[in-house]
Structure formats: C-alpha cells, structure tokens
Amino acid sequence: MITVTEFAFTSRAITDVVRARAFYEGFLGLQATMALEFENGHWWIEYELPGGTLAISNAWIPSGHGVSTIIAFEVPDLDKALAEVHADRVPITFGPLDTPVCRMFGISDPDGNGVTLHQRKATD
C-alpha cells in the first residue's frame, strides 16, 4: 500500500500561456511561485496557496468532455511507491520525471483518470 501524506498539487490544462496567466494572475490576483519552460514552448506555472498548489500547463490539451485536471499526491518515498506500482502491475502513464524541485510519475485510476505520485526534493 502506498502512503499518501497530502495533496501535492492540482494542475489544469491550458492552451494559451499568456491568456491563462492574465486570468490567474491579473484577474484572480494569484502570484506565480514558479514558471518553468521545461520543453520548447511547454510551460509549468505554479501558484502556492494555503492548503495546496495550483499548477497550470500547456503540456497536454484540455478535454472537450469536461474538466482537465490532474491530482497529485505527495508520498514520502517515490522509489518505494514506484516499486509498489510495479509489484501491483499498475500501468505507469508517464515518468518518472526529475525536475529541479520534485520527482514524480503518473498512473491511472480504474476509470482512466490521471493520478500523479509526487515527492518534493529536500530544500536547503
């Protein structure tokens, strides 16, 4: 069994980074705590709020059939979670990925909804 300690982040798919930032930062007044262009033209932008982090990204497209949201759960040991996913033969949908601030990989729930398992890196 994987141990989940908290929500790591919720992420929304966007199509236009400039327009989305104008909405989230200009209209809603959120302040970006990270803006990372991780691949040519693909952005990951985070807004830390009490109780969690909202991320927006144009790395995937919004669904025309409803909400395009990723839920990420924080785990204390990503390698252990990965071993448990392999042992239970749960398909991995992406990763593992290593970023400057975290490591993560994706799986799907029984209905095909994306779930990300996430571990923050230690800060100095």
Structure commentary:
The radius of gyration is 15 Å and the shape is globular. Strands 2-3-4-1-5-8-7-6 form an eight-stranded mixed beta sheet. The model has no long low-confidence stretch (mean pLDDT 87). The chain has helices at 17-27, 78-87; strands at residues 6-13, 34-39, 42-49, 52-57, 69-74, 92-98, 102-108, 114-120. The protein has two helices and eight strands; from the N terminus they run E-H-E-E-E-E-H-E-E-E. With 124 residues, it is of the alpha+beta class. The termini are far apart. The longest helix is centred in the first third of the chain and has 11 residues, at 17-27. The chain has a single domain, classed as 2,3-Dihydroxybiphenyl 1,2-Dioxygenase, domain 1, CATH 3.10.180.
What is the second-level CATH architecture?
A: Roll
Stretches where pLDDT is under 50 for at least 5 consecutive residues are none
Oligomeric state of the chains present here: single chain
> If you average the pLDDT, what whole number results?
87
Report the structural category.
Answer: alpha+beta
In the CATH hierarchy, what is the superfamily?
2,3-Dihydroxybiphenyl 1,2-Dioxygenase, domain 1
Strand order of the largest sheet: 2-3-4-1-5-8-7-6
Q: What's the number of domains?
A: 1
Helix-strand pattern: EHEEEEHEEE
How many strands?
A: 8
Strand content: 35-45%
- CATH classification, class level: Alpha Beta
Q: Determine the N-to-C terminus distance.
A: 30 Å
Assign the CATH topology: 2,3-Dihydroxybiphenyl 1,2-Dioxygenase, domain 1
**What is the helix fraction of residues, given as a range?**
10-25%
Shape: globular
Q: If you compute it from the alpha carbons, what radius of gyration comes out, rounded to the nearest whole angstrom? A: 15 Å
Number of helices: 2
